[in-house]
Specification:
Elements: H1 25-33, E1 38-41, H2 50-58, E2 62-66, H3 70-82, E3 87-90, H4 96-107, E4 113-116, H5 124-132, E5 135-140, H6 155-158, H7 160-166, E6 171-176, H8 181-191, E7 197-200, E8 208-214, H9 218-230, E9 235-239, H10 243-256, E10 261-264, H11 270-282, E11 287-290, E12 303-308, H12 315-322, E13 332-338, H13 343-353, H14 357-368, H15 379-386, H16 392-404, E14 408-411, E15 417-422, H17 438-451, E16 459-461, H18 463-470, H19 474-484, E17 490-496, E18 500-503, H20 517-538, H21 544-551, H22 564-567, H23 574-579, H24 585-601, H25 607-615, H26 620-624, H27 641-653, E19 657-663, E20 666-671, H28 673-679, H29 692-699, H30 758-766, H31 772-781, H32 787-794, H33 798-810, H34 817-820, H35 823-832, H36 841-847, H37 854-869
Parallel strand pairs: 1-6, 1-7, 2-4, 2-5, 3-4, 5-6, 8-13, 9-11, 9-12, 10-11, 12-13
Antiparallel strand pairs: 14-18, 15-16, 15-17, 19-20
Helix pairs in contact: 1-2, 4-5, 13-16, 13-20, 13-32, 14-16, 15-16, 17-18, 17-19, 24-28, 25-27, 31-33, 32-33, 33-37
Length: 877
């Protein structure tokens, strides 16, 4: 391409089928054309791609585009090719031969733009080829992935600054739709951009209608989603936090709605994901139910709504995902169905992304004791073997930390290939071998011929071909490989089936490994802070779009005038209207009673004991600790224990209460500093959104508290009613529900759990003190949580949760086991126990797959038996 820098950018618009720029585009393009490094923050649909595509036609040399979006690469290259613009892409969808051909064409100057995935920079051969090409501009899309403080940090992105220097530090433009000021600064620092020009195109999306619906229970939330879909036409995206939730919601929506419904999540194969994307793109009014794996690079401008069924992890993620609606500029809805308890799932994800030191230590100790090397185990198998209460992705984080510390090496899944690496710049390995080692010399020369100049990286290759090139039979080649492996500068990993780990250091004690746990803890707290801002957004009384703009640094933004808080939707209840302005006196009274009760409990009891005290329960535990003698005993007795539980969740979400562990797995409820100020009368209750069920009761005329219970409570100094013993932590207190009174106790949609024994469950529901396993069972059977999620919510180990599940089955309570386990765990158990079930515990143990604990095997046995016979059975060893 000839140098066209003197021409006006407008002259190149027809090449892209355009007649004018979108707001902000021209300034960015002009800065790129004159040679400035740039950071471009432009909202979804704002036209970021043109900011590097058009300059690629105006300047000599090639543009290298780094993007994590494989689907987007092909779509953009196809579009550019149709326009006559020379472009190509390299990613995992191409064969090695195709990748090599494309890279050679780029090095020979046959492309104006080449799109690559960040993983390509792991290859020294790729870096060498790029260095030979005349790369005039490096464009990095989704640049927020570079920063560990961003909402979608990716490790390959973090190395782009180093790789940029390796290819000669070309002029660079980094682009993203979402970045706070902190993330912007970090991106520029990591890319080593000295004086970049920063362009922020503005985050306001006036055609988007932001709205929040607050519901404590899954049943109410599903009904609200059904109502929302019934009144919202067109194509849309429903985001859920887990694969299981996506599948269940997809089934439910397909029953409610006549539109085509497809499901998308990371558990689908590549071809299935592509098929779902194509169906969604081609259908005029399809609904896709998806995890956050969906949407990046999907260029569908006519999405009329985006609904978040579960809480996103950050406002950055929410803004980016919600921003996929209305890219054509037409009115679109962005609905957030908020449940305070959803935060537990996001906290689980955060704990998995930033594991505690003890979790990393357990993974390390387990791996160093494994006899095999490489170790061929999935992350799920490792998690189950170690008994961790984090996700399998959390195990992956532990592995990355251990790899960075030099303890192990993660091997890419290359079926039936071996891996070799030369860690020397010497001309040949032969110099390190004795002259009489003829087989080793022949093998070394064959390896070097195959590797060429590639050094200091694992290269995967078929060992039989190397053996043939060296003129060795398989046995002789294996012996020669083992001998070469004794050299410090040579690494050989025998063929393996798929994912594997190679232990490098088994001897160093964990305490001596260099791992930045302080930095990890800081990022964990940062992500928890981001989650807190999502809760702030959901409970906000003022303009929602204004809060988003302020979050991204647009402090001068004004109210949008059309979000639910600005517009005052008619579908909001009376209490919503009250909460969107001044706090309603009824709301204030209830919250003060709650805070006063927690204050008098002095931070020594958990949620269920607090609920029992406030509701006036005379259970054995409440009486044992003399909570009935507190002045706040029974002050919320007009409400059910379920109501008060939801009220506590809302108070935690609003920052008035917090849960903290005094002992491991024993969380207690106590006032935050803000809550203490409110209950003392030193601060106003500025905002509080009552759960939906309480709004109907308080403002709809139902269950109005009697006059005595409505009597205002004083706001004295912190109460000193009495002292409690140091060990006064609680177990769950009773709830007043019966199975025949509440459809909520049915299993989740799609569940095939055996029927619950109503008599057994009702007996527990009627008991003053419920067994602890009952509350764990509710998380499975009512709320649809997995084993790992229930462990997080209950603050129990995985083994304890499985024990609770066992006891539930033994008491006749049905469990949706296929929903509680990962699909991999469940399928492995199904396969191991196909046919007739064993009749002894020894028989169960003998059939257990690797990585499955005997306790989990016993749970599966009980579940299978209950499915077929309708009752559980026990047996002797």
């Amino acid at each position: 391409m000839s140098n066209s820098r003197e021409q006006a950018p407008e002259e190149f618009l027809p090449a892209f089928g355009l007649s004018e720029f979108r707001p902000g585009q021209r300034d960015v393009i002009q800065a790129v054309v004159v040679g400035d490094d740039c950071l471009c923050i432009m909202p979804t649909g704002g036209g970021k791609s043109l900011c590097y595509q058009l300059p690629a036609l105006m300047r000599p040399g090639a543009t290298l585009v780094v993007s994590p979006l494989i689907a987007l690469m092909k779509d953009q290259v196809d579009s550019l090719t149709e326009l006559g613009i020379r472009s190509g892409f390299i990613n995992s969808s191409l064969t090695p031969v195709e990748q090599s051909t494309c890279l050679s064409q780029f090095a020979d100057g046959l492309f104006d733009l080449l799109y690559v995935a960040p993983e390509r920079f792991r290859s020294s051969r790729f870096i060498d080829a790029v260095s030979r090409a005349n790369v005039d501009l490096l464009a990095i899309d989704e640049a927020h992935c570079i920063s560990e403080w961003g909402h979608d940090f990716r490790h390959d992105y973090a190395r782009l600054g180093e790789f940029r220097e390796q290819i000669g530090s070309p002029q660079t433009i980094a682009l993203t739709a979402t970045a706070t000021r902190e993330v912007r600064e970090d991106v520029c620092q990591q890319l080593r951009l000295e004086t970049p020009k920063t362009f922020v195109a503005g985050f306001a999306r006036p055609n988007l209608h932001y709205e929040v619906y607050t519901h404590a229970g899954n049943r109410d939330k599903r009904e609200a989603l059904r109502q929302f879909l019934s009144e919202t036409s067109g194509a849309g995206i429903v985001y859920a936090s887990t694969r299981r939730a996506c599948e269940e919601l997809g089934e439910a929506i397909a029953e409610w709605d006549s539109r085509q419904v497809v499901v998308y999540h990371g558990g689908l194969g590549a071809e299935d994901r592509r098929e779902v994307q194509d169906e969604f793109m081609q259908a005029e009014d399809a609904i896709v139910v998806a995890t956050n794996a969906f949407g990046m690079g999907i260029d569908k401008s006519t999405v009329r709504f985006v609904a978040h069924y579960n809480m996103p992890g950050s406002l950055e993620a929410y803004y980016q995902e919600a921003g996929r609606a209305g890219r054509d500029g037409n009115h679109s809805r962005c609905a957030f169905f908020f449940s305070p308890s959803d935060r537990y799932i996001q906290e689980f994800f955060i704990e998995s992304a930033f594991p505690q030191p003890d979790a990393v230590a357990k993974v390390y100790d387990f791996l160093r004791c494994c006899d095999d090397n490489p170790i061929e185990m999935t992350q799920d198998e490792i998690r189950a073997s170690v008994g961790l209460s984090i996700s399998s992705e959390g195990v992956g984080t532990c592995e990355r930390l251990l790899e960075k510390a030099g303890a192990l090496e993660r091997l890419e899944p290359n079926r039936n290939l071996a891996a070799v690496r030369l860690d020397t710049d010497a001309a040949t390995l032969v110099d390190f071998l004795p002259s009489q080692a003829r087989n080793q010399i022949s093998l070394a020369r064959a390896i070097e011929q195959r590797l060429g100049k590639r050094r200091h990286e694992l290269v995967y290759l078929p060992p039989q071909e190397i053996a043939e090139a060296a003129g060795l039979n398989p046995a002789a080649a294996n012996r020669a490989f083992r001998e070469l492996n004794r050299l410090e500068c040579f690494t050989y990993v025998p063929p393996f089936r798929g994912r594997a780990l190679r232990m490098i250091d088994r001897e160093t004690p964990f305490e001596e490994l260099v791992i930045d746990f302080e930095g990890l803890a800081a990022r964990r707290q940062s992500n928890l802070g981001k989650l807190r801002r999502v809760i702030d957004y959901a409970t906000l009384a003022s303009c929602r779009q204004q809060m988003i703009l302020d979050y991204f640094g647009e402090s001068e933004a004004t109210a949008c005038g059309h979000c639910d808080n600005c517009h005052g939707d008619e579908q909001k209840t009376t209490s919503d209207a009250a909460d969107s302005g001044a706090i309603h006196p009824g709301t204030r009274m209830i919250v003060i009673k709650l805070l006063s009760g927690v204050a008098r409990a002095r931070g020594r009891f958990g949620k269920q004991m607090i609920i029992g005290m406030l509701c006036g329960s005379r259970s054995a535990k409440v009486l044992k600790w003399k909570l009935d003698e507190l002045s706040t005993f029974g002050v919320l007795s007009a409400f059910t224990q379920t109501d008060v539980s939801e009220l506590i969740d809302a108070a935690i979400a609003s920052g008035l209460l917090e849960q903290s562990e005094i002992d491991r797995f024993r969380p207690v409820i106590k006032l935050t500093d803000q809550g203490e100020q409110v209950v003392r009368g030193k601060a106003e209750l500025e905002r509080f959104r009552l759960p939906q069920s309480l709004r109907r009761k308080v403002f709809g005329g139902q269950h109005q508290p009697p006059g005595e219970n409505l009597r205002p409570l004083p706001s004295p100094p912190m109460p000193e009613d009495r002292q409690f013993p140091e060990d006064s932590r609680d177990e769950p207190a009773p709830k007043s529900l019966r199975l025949d009174q509440s459809s909520e106790l049915k299993g989740p949609i799609g569940s095939s759990s055996p029927p619950t024994n109503d008599a057994a469950a009702n007996a527990m529901l009627d008991a003053d003190v419920k067994p602890e396993f009952f509350w764990t069972w509710r998380l499975f059977a009512v709320d649809g949580y997995s084993l790992d999620q229930a462990a997080l919510i209950r603050r129990l180990s995985r083994e304890e949760v499985i024990d609770h599940a066992l006891r539930a089955v033994e008491h006749g309570l049905g469990l949706p086991l296929e929903k509680m386990l990962s699909s991999e765990e469940f399928e492995r158990l199904q396969s191991a126990f196909s046919g007739d079930l064993p009749t002894s515990l020894r028989g169960v143990t003998a059939k257990l797959p690797t990585g499955i604990s005997p306790q989990l095997g016993l749970l599966y046995w009980n579940w299978r038996n209950a499915q077929t016979s309708g009752q559980s059975t026990t047996f002797e060893n």
